[in-house]
Every structure is written in C-alpha cells, then in structure tokens.
Automatic annotation (TrEMBL):
<keyword id="KW-0378">Hydrolase</keyword>
<dbReference type="InterPro" id="IPR029058">
    <property type="entry name" value="AB_hydrolase_fold"/>
</dbReference>
<dbReference type="InterPro" id="IPR000073">
    <property type="entry name" value="AB_hydrolase_1"/>
</dbReference>
<keyword id="KW-0732">Signal</keyword>
<protein>
    <submittedName>
        <fullName>Alpha/beta hydrolase</fullName>
    </submittedName>
</protein>
<dbReference type="InterPro" id="IPR052897">
    <property type="entry name" value="Sec-Metab_Biosynth_Hydrolase"/>
</dbReference>
<dbReference type="GO" id="GO:0016787">
    <property type="term" value="F:hydrolase activity"/>
</dbReference>
<dbReference type="Pfam" id="PF12697">
    <property type="entry name" value="Abhydrolase_6"/>
</dbReference>
<feature type="signal peptide">
    <location>
        <begin position="1"/>
        <end position="21"/>
    </location>
</feature>
<feature type="domain" description="AB hydrolase-1">
    <location>
        <begin position="29"/>
        <end position="249"/>
    </location>
</feature>
C-alpha cells in the first residue's frame, strides 16, 4: 500500500512539474481597422507579432454601425478557443469597446490612435471636443446611399497630409485609393457600456494625429485608466503603419500582462 501511495505521489509531482514547465498559451490577437483604412494597414504589426509566435487575425470591419460592426468582431472572438487581445485603430476602438462585452476570453484591449467612448458618446462628438482635428476639411463630397444615409471618404489629394503624413507620399497615395468608407451613421451612433471599464486597457498614439487630436486621445487614455500609454512624437493617425514595432511591443505587453 505504501508503495502505491509513493508511486501515486510521484506521478502527481511529475504531472505538476510538467504543467509548470509547459509554456503559457499566447493569446490570439485580433486587429480591427478603422475608417478610411483596411486590414492591410496592420501588415507591419502583424508580421512582428507572427514572428514572435502569436496567431493574428485582421478583422474586416464593415464600418456601417457600432453595434453591427461590434457583433461581427464578437462573432470572431466567440470562434476562438483561448484568450484574445482585441486591438482597435481609430473608429475600431469604438468597435472593440463593445465587442468585448459578454466574451470572457477577451484578456485586454489595445487602443491605437483610437476612440474609447463612454456610454452615450459618439465618435464624431469626441473628435470635435478638443482642438487640432482637421478631418472635416479633408472629406470628399459624401456618397449618397440608395438605402439612405451617406458614406464618407477622404479626398485623395489630401489623404497624405491628413491621414498619413509620416509615410512616404507614394505609399499614402495607394492607401488613399484603397481607403474604405465609413457610414455617417457609424460616426453618430451612441456607444453602449464600454468594456474598458472592466478590462485592462492600453493606448498608443502619435502627437501629429490630425484625425483625432492628441489631446482627445490622451483624455480617453486617462479616463480608461490605461495601464500603459505610449505617445510617438510626430506620428500620424496611422501610427501602426508608420511605427509597427512600437505598436506590436505594446500589444505584446497587453498579451503578457496578468
């Protein structure tokens, strides 16, 4: 009997040691683009994360409504067996703030030059609350939709200066051609209760952002009690494209934090 007890104890110790030695499962990183961009804006960040062993998904954000877009991202989260880090750029911040609700596997939120709205706030109101934003002056004539409503684009000849001033002009020109429009309804839709009130949040943005003023981004980071806020001197609104290493580093910090 004593021999059996000794053998059982040895097996338990071995199992515990093996479990302790096993590497922790890295979260899946879901990258959510914002208005006037698409998932390829994350290419540099995704390459770094993949190199470091992370599974990365570039979600296709419809840019139609906060509630509807959040449901699209939430569906992706629900399909993943394991922890998730949600990362949003610009309007994508509003989306991840809602998409995380009800998904217990979301570990943390990362806001990349992104909105982190309080309940009842809209992206349009937040971007205009602080001085420094010039997006309104750079928008093209709205496209009227057959089903009602309008789509917004940035004028291609103003895209570089407005959206991506710290990228090469030729690269910004191609981004302008491929930009995804956002529905007016998405920018004016009031946000629901935000997940940043219950989940660890991280922020990174550039001081040269002309879409969402740096003062607005700093205000939202402080309000959300950001665990770590990184400001990149002179970076434009597409800080993830111009400074992918800094953005990837913050995402990895969010992925590894307890």
């Amino acid at each position: 009997m004593n021999k059996l007890k000794t053998a059982a104890a040895a097996l338990m110790i071995a199992a515990a040691s093996a479990a302790a030695a096993a590497p922790a499962v890295k979260p899946t990183v879901i990258l959510v683009h914002g208005a006037f961009a698409d998932a390829t804006s994350w290419n540099g960040v995704a390459a770094k994360l993949r190199k470091d062993g992370y599974t990365v998904i570039g979600a296709a954000n419809p840019l139609r409504s906060v509630k509807g877009d959040a449901q699209v991202v939430s569906n992706i989260v629900k399909s993943i067996d394991g922890p998730v880090v949600l990362v949003g750029h610009s309007y994508g911040g509003s989306v991840i703030s809602a998409a995380a609700n009800g998904n217990a596997n979301v570990k943390s939120l990362v806001y990349v030059a992104a909105f982190a709205p309080e309940q009842g706030e809209t992206a349009l109101e937040l971007s205009g609350r602080f001085p420094g934003g010039t997006l309104g002056q750079a928008l093209a004539t709205p496209v009227v939709l057959a089903e009602g409503g309008k789509d917004f684009y940035i004028q291609q000849d103003k895209f570089h200066k407005q959206f991506a001033a710290d990228l090469p002009k030729a690269e910004a020109a191609l981004m302008a051609v491929a930009q995804r429009p956002i529905a007016e309804a998405a920018l004016t839709e009031a946000s629901a209760a935000p997940a940043w009130k219950t989940l660890p949040s991280y922020f990174i943005y550039g001081t040269g952002d002309k879409n969402i003023p740096a003062a607005a981004l700093g205000f939202m980071a402080e309000r959300a009690k950001s665990r770590k806020t990184v400001t990149v001197a002179g970076a434009s609104h597409v800080v993830m494209t111009s400074n992918p290493a800094a953005v990837a580093s913050l995402i990895e910090a969010a992925a590894g934090a307890n």
